[in-house]
Amino acid sequence: MTQILPVLSTVDEHYRDQRRYPDGVAFMDGQYLPMSEAKISVLDWGFLHSDATYDTVHVWNGRFFRLDLHLDRFFGGVERLRMKLPYDREKIESILRNCVALSGHRSAYVEMICTRGSSPTFSRDPRQAENRFIAFAIPFGSVANKEQLERGLHVAISETVRIPPKSVDPAIKNYHWLDLVKGLFDAYDMGAETALIVDTNGHIAEGPGFNVFVVKDGSLRTPAFGVLPGITRRTVFDLCAEIGLSTAAAEISRAEIKGADEVFITSTAGGIMPVTRIDAAAIANGQVGAVTRRLMDLYWHKHDDPKWSTAVIYPR
Length: 316
What we know:
It is built from eight helices and 15 strands. It is an alpha+beta fold. Strands 7, 8, 9, 10, 11, 12, 13 and 14 form an eight-stranded mixed beta sheet that branches. A seven-stranded antiparallel beta sheet has the order 2-1-6-5-3-4-15.
C-alpha cells in the first residue's frame, strides 16, 4: 500500500496584514512607522503574560495635557516592575512629541509602553527578557461620545470584583483588563453603556479605563481602595482646590452612588464625563449637574494654560 505524505504549506517570507488601523505614527526599535506597520512578536511577554506597563496622555489643540504627570507615573511603573527602558526621560518625551508631530494630529491619544519583551532562548526567567519600548499617536478618542457628554452616560454596576491590590498594584498602569471587560459585557447585558465594578469589600471601585466621582451636598468623593490613581482624577482634586470645593478619597457604597446629587467619571480618554443613570435609575433629576458642568468647563479651559500643557512643534 502506497503511503500518501501530507503536503506541507510553504512559509511566507513576510506577514501580510489585511486589517485596518487608525491613522497615526508609532515608534518601535528606533523607527517611526505607520500604525499599520507597528507589530510586536507573539513571543513578547507583554502579549503572552500581560507583562507590561503603559501610560496614555492626550494632545488637545496641539498641546499635551499634563505630560509630566503621565511620564512620572510611567517611569514609576517601569521601576516597580523591574524593567529597564532603553531611553531616558528626555528622549522618551522627544519620541512622544515626534509621534504626534509626524502624525499631524492636533488632537491625539498618545501611548507609551514598556513590555517585558522576549528572550532569545524563550527562557521562563523574566530577568533574561529584553525589555521593549513602544509609543504611538492616533486620533483622540473618548469614553463618551458627543450625545453622551450632553445627556450623561448610562452606567450599570457589575458584580465583577476588581483584581485586589495585593495581587496587582493598581498604581502601575497595566493591561490586566479581563475583570473590566467582563464588567463591560455585564453592563451591555443590562442595557447600559459602560460599567462600574466593585472592590473586594463590595464597594464601588472603577470602570474600564476610568475613575468615578460622586457629588453630594457640594462635596466630592472618589473611591480610594484598589483603583488606578488616574491623572484626570488627580486633576479633579487640583481643580476643586482651586475653586474651593471639598474633595476626598474614601469608600463609596452602591447606595451612596445611587443617592448622589451628581456622578461623573474621569479619564484621559474624554476628561470629565457626566453620568445621569445607574442601573436604569436616574441620578437626582436625571440631568447633568451644575458642579459637573463647572468642572468640565474648567478642565478644558486648562488645556490652553502653559502651566498645565505643553505645545507640540509640527513640521511646516
